[in-house]
């Protein structure tokens, strides 16, 4: 029998447990144990219900284009609970000199694809608009070296595009700094476009033309985001319900991992057990600490992956005069503490009772280094002050709720993929060791689920299966 230890009970660890348990129930000769240091499972995924409001403490959805999230929900019997973002009403603003300017139609992340909206938008200066027009004539770049997202965008469209589009958009995803984030890891599609075509505008328009010509009549594009009716916690609860409680151990402190001759020794809460495989589903710094006695190169590589901490403030109102759309982004250059604000009731209808409004404001340690020292009351005061200055929203909220997360978001800094490739070579030469979650290949919920699924497929490939009847 193969015994597997899963360390970490966030979405990656729970997914790994689910896939292992599925294999075990189908007759695979294996046993698994999940060790979680805290008193709850789910990691940064947590939902609170408050007088008809659905409050997300962590991610409120996942990208629909990545299939592992919805696929797992379907397997868990949550297919009828999946909901789509209200893309028909999607409109996002950028704060520019304390004024909300809508992102113009046809701007696909940072690539302009329509002439008139770009020519008339107040988001960009004439110099940047001219830079957009001449980008079409950019020649191919065969240089395979990695660089920062900031450097990459600046070469194509100038500093203003970095400040007003790339930085706030990616800050909302990674909570970090575009001058450090790796273009190969964060924007691989754009890096490939540059290698093949030179011009991002030309490559994007060609890709859109190919998509139109191959589109099947009557087939709608998937929504941008998918979530669950009663919040992302539904996924966590369904996973927990699908697992035997006897295999989950909570509040496991001082976990130590050691490589034995043909096994792994895992010590937790004073007891030591042998396993044939270990799955680390914890942030990279925690994984590095666990592997101190296993391989110094792996520990060094994991230690280089930086993380930012984050906070979200939910504010509920009976009435609030808000612009159309899903919310706004705040560039670093505006000098504010808030990074973004989502109008939850517009992005996902039915998350509030009646006509009530729900706003969700985001903060990161990349802008507020001392973020985790702020109290919930401090964060709410900052959010309300900046909403008043940006939106003119002076009314008293029904209630406020703040959530803080330490080391929540991995930062894929320049050279990340090369460092990951080296670590994966070490892992390949270390039988039975698997690292999953957001450390290597994507920080979203579907990415974490996929990493768990692939690890379990590797583990169970050599496990005896029941003979066919």
Which fold name is given in CATH as the topology of the largest domain? FAD/NAD(P)-binding domain
The CATH class of the largest domain is identified as Alpha Beta
> Low-confidence spans: pLDDT under 50, at least 5 residues?
none
CATH architecture heading of the largest domain: 3-Layer(bba) Sandwich
Mean pLDDT: 93
Number of strands: 22
Please give the structural blueprint.
Layout: E1 2-7, H1 11-25, E2 30-35, E3 47-50, E4 53-56, E5 62-63, H2 68-75, E6 82-84, E7 92-96, E8 99-102, E9 107-108, E10 111-112, H3 115-120, H4 126-135, H5 149-157, H6 159-174, H7 183-186, H8 188-197, H9 200-214, E11 225-228, H10 233-241, E12 248-249, E13 256-259, E14 264-268, E15 271-275, E16 277-280, H11 284-290, H12 296-303, E17 306-317, E18 327-329, E19 340-343, H13 344-347, E20 357-364, H14 376-391, E21 399-411, H15 416-428, E22 433-435, H16 445-460
Parallel strand pairs: 1-2, 1-16, 2-12, 7-18, 16-22
Antiparallel strand pairs: 3-4, 5-11, 6-11, 7-8, 9-10, 13-14, 14-15, 17-20, 17-21, 18-19, 19-20
Summarize the structure.
With 469 residues, this protein is an alpha+beta fold.
